[in-house]
């Protein structure tokens, strides 16, 4: 039986039918499968007391530290689970009655779908989060590191290839990239959250996967993160204004950074270099 035949075979089965099939045909008791498979994982924040060191006479010195623990429960929205974890009661409050069966339609009714205006250019711009720290930790060449810039370019190329039918072109500088998406695009039904998250997550994963190609001698000490936003521009003229603004910003920032790092290389401290550029 192939995969399609298997799906067709169990179509219409209820929970009891599926349990019986597993047990009768394969001698598998579903209820004994690992909880992580059947119930998912709930991550809870807690504070634990750890021994950090010992005194000269052997007495332990303890400190409180934050810890996140995985928990598995048959009913994470149940009264018993809630009462077993004080944090949930404290942060979310308790309840008197058990929760009955909830319809998916009811829960989905609270979701907010922010759809972008039709027949407008969409620009999805991603920016590195705290990239000045990331660049220092990974010892990027100042003011510009062509390895880092070419890695950004490669990630943008990967995004264009993945969304070939929807993205017209892209413009990037430093730790940001703007992706210009067609007016007629209906990617994810123009839902902003889906569009932005898909592009940002794919860009970020590509950055991590391809890091060694550009920094073969430098270990990636921690993964980068990028945020993103989507903005609609109703006309080509306004879109051109946007692109002009980003390129002017590129020039201004690069000119400042070039001067700043030349001053630092000449022996000035970073504060002195900043004051010199302020005219102070």
Automatic annotation (TrEMBL):
Q: What class of enzyme is it?
A: transferase
Q: Which Gene Ontology molecular-function terms are recorded?
A: GTP binding; magnesium ion binding; tRNA guanylyltransferase activity
Catalytic activity reported = a 5'-end ribonucleotide-tRNA(His) + GTP + ATP + H2O = a 5'-end phospho-guanosine-ribonucleotide-tRNA(His) + AMP + 2 diphosphate + H(+)
Residue ranges of the tRNAHis guanylyltransferase catalytic domain?
105-234
Q: From what superkingdom does this record's organism come?
A: Eukaryota
Q: Specify the species.
A: Vigna angularis var. angularis
Which keywords describe this protein according to UniProt?
GTP-binding, Magnesium, Metal-binding, Nucleotide-binding, Nucleotidyltransferase, Nucleus, Transferase, tRNA processing
Q: What is the role of this chain?
A: Adds a GMP to the 5'-end of tRNA(His) after transcription and RNase P cleavage.
**Name of encoding gene:** Vigan.06G000800
**What is this protein called in UniProt?**
tRNA(His) guanylyltransferase
């Amino acid at each position: 039986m192939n995969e399609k035949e298997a799906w067709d075979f169990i179509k219409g089965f209820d929970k009891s039918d599926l349990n019986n099939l597993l047990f009768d045909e394969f001698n598998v008791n579903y209820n004994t499968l690992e909880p992580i498979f059947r119930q998912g994982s709930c991550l809870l924040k807690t504070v634990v007391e750890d021994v950090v060191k010992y005194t000269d006479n052997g007495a332990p010195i303890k400190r409180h530290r934050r810890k996140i623990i995985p928990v598995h429960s048959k009913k994470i929205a149940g009264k018993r689970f809630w009462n077993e974890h004080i944090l949930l009661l404290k942060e979310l409050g308790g309840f008197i009655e058990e929760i009955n069966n909830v319809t998916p339609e009811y829960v989905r009714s609270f979701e907010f779908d922010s759809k972008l205006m039709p027949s407008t250019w969409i620009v999805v711009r991603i920016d590195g989060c705290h990239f000045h720290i990331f660049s220092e930790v990974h010892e990027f060449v100042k003011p510009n590191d062509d390895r880092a810039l070419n890695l950004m370019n490669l990630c943008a190329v990967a995004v264009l290839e993945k969304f070939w039918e929807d993205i017209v072109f892209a413009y990037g500088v430093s730790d940001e990239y703007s992706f210009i998406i067609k007016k007629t695009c209906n990617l994810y039904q123009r839902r902003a959250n889906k569009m932005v998250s898909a592009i940002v997550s794919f860009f970020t994963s590509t950055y991590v996967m391809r890091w060694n190609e550009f920094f073969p001698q430098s270990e990636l000490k921690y993964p980068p993160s990028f945020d993103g936003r989507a903005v609609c521009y109703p006309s080509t003229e306004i879109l051109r204004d946007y692109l002009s603004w980003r390129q002017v910003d590129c020039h201004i920032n690069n000119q400042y950074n070039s001067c700043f790092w030349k001053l630092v290389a000449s022996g000035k401290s970073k504060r002195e270099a900043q004051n010199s550029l302020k005219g102070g």
